[in-house]
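Hello forum,

I keep getting stuck at the same step: I have a sequence, I want structure tokens, and every attempt I make locally crashes halfway through. Rather than fight my setup again tonight, could one of you with a working pipeline run this one for me? It's a single chain of 275 residues.
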Amino acid sequence: MTKIISFLNHKGGVAKTTTCANLATALWILGKKVLVIDTDQQCNLSGVLGFSQKEGDPTLSDWLKEPVPAPVYIRYEGLDYIPASKALRNMEAELLNKRSRETILARKLDQVKNEYDYVVIDCAPGDSVLNDNALSASDAVIIPTECSGFSLQGMQNLLLAIHEIQSEINPNLSIEGYLLVKYDKQTKIAKEVSRYFEKQSEVPTMKTKIRKCVKFDESPLGHQTIFEYAPESNGAEDYMRLAEEMTGAKRPKNWKTVARKAEEEMEESNSENGN
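Reply #2:
Ran it on my machine without issues. Output:
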């Protein structure tokens, strides 16, 4: 059965895109078939996954507006994605004029979701109709939360927005938990933030914490996730542990080499085909 998960925080800079790219890859390494959807007009997730739009290439905005097939691109066999484009900057206004505008993505996903074990949705910062669409289509939402004194900014409004979708549109939506990112156990603030969120009774906190890792900043430059760029790093270990926590599955013995091997095979295939 497919599980659709949105990653949402109204605050920017909290590693939503980093989490979606790396968690999706970790789930794929665990043998899950995964679809990643980029709903952010900045297109950062699409870039990490290797998308470079050429004239005529369909993207998420085309799919939401028109009765066309899902614009699914292949990252690796079993790891697919639907890319964003700059056209999403106009999507808010266009969706406002649509009937049942908050459930367009849910209806579109009914066409393809059964082909996947997981659908991972990267949401843009802020409150928007497009984010409402993501929540309306999802089974769960995970809230990436940085370990800093700013982590509580806007959190109450975010929870209110989620509860509104639950009560009015999608009663099956659950809050899977806060995901603490940029965690450094040596700092006092990280410990205090961690204790604060773990004491919250309304929303659980994921057991896995994503530690600070400079490799997260470097890997997108080569259109790579942490698993291609630095599989020996703490970052790769943390996202693999998170995927195991979410699925109950155990990592394969060769997990550190799977993504790199797939990338090499893809590059070799592209070279042979003249791409």
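The longest helix spans residues 255-272. If your local run keeps crashing, start a new thread with the error log.
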